[in-house]
Amino acid sequence: MRVRTTPLPMDVSQWYRFAIRLLPMAAIAAATQLVSVAPWTAVSWDHMLWLPGAALMCVLLWRPYPEWPACLLGAFLGAMVSLLVHRAPVLESAGILTGLLLLVAVAVWTMRSLRRCGPPLEDYQQVSLFLATAVAALPLASAGWIHLLAGVVDLPGLIAAWPSLVLPHALTYLLVVPLFVGLRALQRHPERRPPLTACLAVLDLALLLILWTAWVWPWSSPVMDPLLILAATMFLVWTLLTLGTVSAFLTLLCSALLCMAVSSRGWGPLAYSAVEHTTLAVQLWALSEGILLALLTVLAEQRRSSRLSLGLASVRLADLTGRMLHVQEEERTRIARELHDDINQSLASVSIQLSSLKRTTDAGTREQVEKLQEQLLSVSGDVRRLSHDLHPSLLRYTSLAVALRGLCEGCHVPARTRIQCDVADGPPLDEDQKLNLFRIAQEAIHNINRHAHAQHAWITLRFDAAAGMLEVQDNGIGVDVGRASRGLGMISIEERARLLGGSVLFERRQEGGSRLLVCFPMRRPRIADRPSVSA
Fold this sequence. Notes:
The protein contains 16 helices and five strands. It is an alpha+beta fold. It has three domains: about 10-195, Orthogonal Bundle (Arp2/3 complex 21 kDa subunit ARPC3), CATH 1.10.1760; about 215-245 and about 260-270 and about 290-390; about 400-530, 2-Layer Sandwich (Heat Shock Protein 90).
């Protein structure tokens, strides 16, 4: 015998989760319905906005489907309370609200089903889907539902012409939903927040006040009307490019509300003698501005995203270049150590054996052995200099000025090129600073030897309290600055200057030749890099 079991009622936690979704949505719907000019009450003029639908759409766009019943019920109860305060008919208002809120849920489900994973404000397809669904199809369906209900029940004073029903819904979704989407995007990605300075905020507010003062000013010439409308469009575009999407749509929403207020009193370029014409003109103006702003938002967000991606790529590239330079220095140190400790020691051992062989041979053979020994000593000197170039160990025990003087004296330059070293002993530098400055000077001399064909070259090192300056000049034929900046040597110099926290200037000299200037801030050496003092 099968025993039937009845489902248990919702436990306390489930009722609590349902309530915390229902009550906030009811409060939001009640507040937005009070702010709206109630479309279901008998009024003698058309309404401008209907905000509860846009508020519900913003909530449903990011809430999971199991929470939708609570949100829909909360929106219905909150809006109904506000309508009852306005003494609207209960059954008729309930029927209208039920259909409108269900249509909003269908529209949101459609957009979520067709939405891609990318940022919604950066994709023309997603923006077009929003405009087609929320700004076109949903308002038309809402107006159709009201007219369909009007054919079944008597709605005295609650029915209006199609534009008076379609435009408030379309305008509300267009003004509110992108603003909410932009706020959500900034919350999830705060690095995309545009830089907002006090000066820029004050300038934006001042321009807005000037614009709206011009709108309400009683101009005698009708030529000013299109100019004022064009000025508002230019101001919205400027706000979008400087302050971002959220500020632009917030400015448009405030401007639309203010325009409704001043136009209904007969002020501004959109005010007409008939209230219906004024309402229609304001709605069409705000709708066109919103559509234009939504399309331009895609370009602005893509531009901002590209700049952010480029900045992140630049940071990663700089970090990679710094790591490569560090690895390069480690490899140079290893090779220099092997040259000095292994190869040079082997050459010294061979030289000692040749000296022993020279004492046991005749005069003719002794002369040949001496020549071999001289060549061997020459190779040993070349290896020693190469080891020093790869890893200047002199930097670890002396100052940068001493190492630069040794570089000028020991480098292989053409006989017609003279290098003058004018370096000053400045404050102590840490190992990284000394090594990077030495490598910059070394690369600059290398470029002079290969390309400048100079007779003279100068290396200057100066310090003051806050910064240092390394300058390398020559009087050669000069180089193409644009071409040189793309070379590996110049890239290495720029990266080492960046590691120093400084800047690089590479230019032609008016007297002929080229000039490399590296300016860098001074910083105290790390304790581990300071020379130890023993008793």
